[in-house]
Design brief:
The protein is α+β, with helices and mostly antiparallel strands. The chain contains four helices and ten strands.
Amino acid sequence: MSGLQELAELIAHIESDVSEASVSVLSPDNREDIAKALLAGLGGNLPVQYSSGEYANHLAVVRVGANKYTIAQDWRELYISEVNYCPCRIPPGANGLLVYHFDYPGVIYDVSRILADHQINISKLNVSREQKGKNALLVCVTDEDITPAVAAAIEREPQIQKVVSLR
């Protein structure tokens, strides 16, 4: 369950305040162990609910304010499978970033160009939006660390609202 704790620590890193977070354990197996690992990673005594998952591989959902993180497990690994309904695959210890932006043509080009300029290789990339031209999220997992300078360069792009490094 150490991977679960590490994923919860990642969520605590992404969010500025997890004191009001809640955990929903979806797995029918090892419920107490899952809850214990997530609470240890989130660093607090938070409310835990138990219910059944929408998909067989979903273990838990962590909600922090308006944000929702779904944690899943398959035959390979534990991972964050969704951030606010944006499908992704963020394993424990991943390098990368979350790019909150207004949907526009070229966001993938803009982000990947800046990463390439800094010799950062993309291993996984997912983009999702509320609707055309509205709020969107780009989830990028990379082989290398994202430095504050790289995150700042991406955040300077006109339609980018916020960039959060995964580490």
